[in-house]
Amino acid sequence: MPIPAQNLDGEFESPPWRTFWVIAAAGLTLRLCLLWIVGDLDLQSDEANYVYLGIAWNHFGFYFDQHRYLWPPGYSWLMARSLNLFGENGMLAVKYLQVFASVSIGMTTMLLTVRLFGLRAARIAGWIWVAYLPLAAFTHVLWNETFFSALFLPGLYQILRLMQRGEDPRATWRVVVAGLCLAGSLYLKESPQFLVVVLALLLVPFAGGLLEGVRRATLLLLVVAACILPWGMRNLNVYGKFIPLGTSLGENAFQGLNQDYRNFDLIPIEKDRERRDIPATRTVTRHWFDYVEPILYRDLQARMDALRENVSTAMKASKDQVAAGGDADPRAGALQAQLLRNTTLQQRWLDQPPPKDPDSLVEFAGNVGW
Length: 370
Prior knowledge:
The protein has 370 residues and is mainly α. It is 66% helix and 0% strand. It has 15 helices and no strands. Helix 8 (171-186) runs parallel beside helix 10. It is elongated, with a radius of gyration of 28 Å.
């Protein structure tokens, strides 16, 4: 994509606002219909974590971390407020709010496309945003990507306008709006925090003068810093280390992204490959995976029976070997210890109480007098 040309006269194709609002309304209507069709979905992984963080924030009055990670507080705070206000409908309220916030994504996508590629491309981009169902699905799950994009893209659009227009009489206002939008998005996902510095530096050569460019870049950084500094100071007080927003790069980054890369979705596949004496996936140039059938409970019982038979055979052979004057087979002891450990774990799993009905957790979240 070419560097945006500087345009001191501000001569760009005027956005067809009526068309854009029609496209945005179509996308909003489709997403509302899809949300009504899918109904309630089971919470998956991070969704459940956000709900639990919101519940804890409501009832204990402080924000929990996540073992090795600290998620930015924006989405959890929103979840806490929604559960506090709407009780058992709090999660559904967040999803509706995400659907309406997605209009910001569609509108900003079209506005960015107008300035970069023209009106025809903007209309095409708008209808792609409407019809691309995987993108619409993000508004129906309790993930922070929708709110992040709804704030980050408008900030990026203001930066682009400043880069293209040069001597803009409303430059200060645009820089402040961009800073507020970018700071708000960082409270949802902290990973682009260094990109803010890059965007600030890009303002310098396109401002029509060095001093004006430095002023705009400095103002942008000051606005963002003023917004995120309170949370960074809170983290310094709680953890003894200044963390601007969070540390949520994830388990893969924690383990390393080079030769020791681990995708924890593939661990069951890796274990099955090891059991079959197949090379690990990281040794394969093109990643191909054998389909692994899920281990059902009856398969677990069959494996336990096979282990018991192996233990019995090994113990008998070991006793015969000792009776003949030889040494005991160490493999028999190892198998016996493995059987004992597996039996204990299996019994502990069977003795676990049934999980609570999710509705009880929601009722617990809505009980503000707890």
